[in-house]
């Protein structure tokens, strides 16, 4: 029976998450991640083929986790209530997952070297994008009882995505806890825009 590996892939992801949340993805390199764990750099390469592969796994793991909860909220039976639940999901999830929230709200996939990701990660990224867009489109059809106008689409995207991110970003940038007023602002914005 072989010797049990001391460090799992999840350990490297956790170290990369901590580094990214504090200093950004540029701070993530093999030596820094391995050093944070007290692991030899060789053990990194047993789990990830490159720094870009680790960054891709980190970004996609956070995106997929957030998107799963957000999309579930968006499927509630009453469309207007579903949209509000999805909008409020952002500050609530960010409060409960501050490190992951910092990754998602303060950075973009290009910061995680997307052009160097392995093909399988690029495929996952495209699938996540398609699922997000499909969920939004379905929600808008339910909300507006048919095909929404461009203006309705823009307002819904702002109320569901842009405004909630704007409400939490200042707190994530300064590493402060997200206060309840963020949810108040998100709710007021949503209710004002989605009539």
Write the SSE topology.
Elements: H1 9-23, H2 30-37, H3 41-45, H4 51-74, H5 79-96, H6 98-106, H7 119-143, H8 150-173, H9 180-193
Structural class: mainly alpha
Distance between the termini: 64 Å
Helical content band: over 70%
Strand content: under 5%
Number of strands: 0
Low-pLDDT sequence parts: none
- Based on Cα principal axes, name the global outline: elongated
Radius of gyration: 19 Å
Our count of helices gives 9
Instruction: Characterize the main sheet.
Output: none
Order of helices and strands: HHHHHHHHH
What integer is the average pLDDT? 94
Describe the protein in words:
Helices cover 73% and strands 0% of the residues. The radius of gyration is 19 Å and the shape is elongated. It is mostly helical.
At a glance:
The protein contains nine helices and no strands.
Give the key terms.
single chain, 195 residues, mainly alpha, elongated
């Amino acid at each position: 029976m072989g010797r049990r590996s001391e460090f799992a892939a999840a350990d490297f992801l956790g170290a990369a998450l901590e580094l990214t949340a504090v200093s950004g993805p540029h701070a993530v390199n093999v030596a820094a991640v391995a050093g944070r764990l007290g692991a030899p750099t060789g053990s990194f390469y047993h789990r990830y083929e490159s720094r870009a592969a680790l960054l891709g796994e980190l970004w996609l793991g956070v995106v997929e986790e957030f998107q799963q909860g957000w999309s579930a909220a968006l499927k509630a039976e009453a469309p207007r209530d579903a949209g509000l639940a999805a909008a409020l999901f952002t500050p609530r999830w960010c409060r409960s997952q501050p490190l992951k929230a910092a990754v998602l709200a303060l950075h973009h996939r290009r910061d995680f070297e997307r052009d160097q990701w392995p093909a399988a990660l690029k495929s996952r990224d495209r699938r996540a994008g398609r699922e997000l867009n499909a969920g939004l489109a379905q929600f808008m059809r339910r909300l507006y009882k048919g095909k929404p106008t461009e203006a309705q689409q823009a307002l819904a995207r702002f109320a569901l995505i842009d405004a909630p991110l704007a409400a939490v970003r200042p707190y994530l940038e300064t590493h402060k806890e997200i206060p309840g007023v963020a949810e108040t602002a998100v709710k007021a914005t949503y209710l004002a825009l989605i009539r």
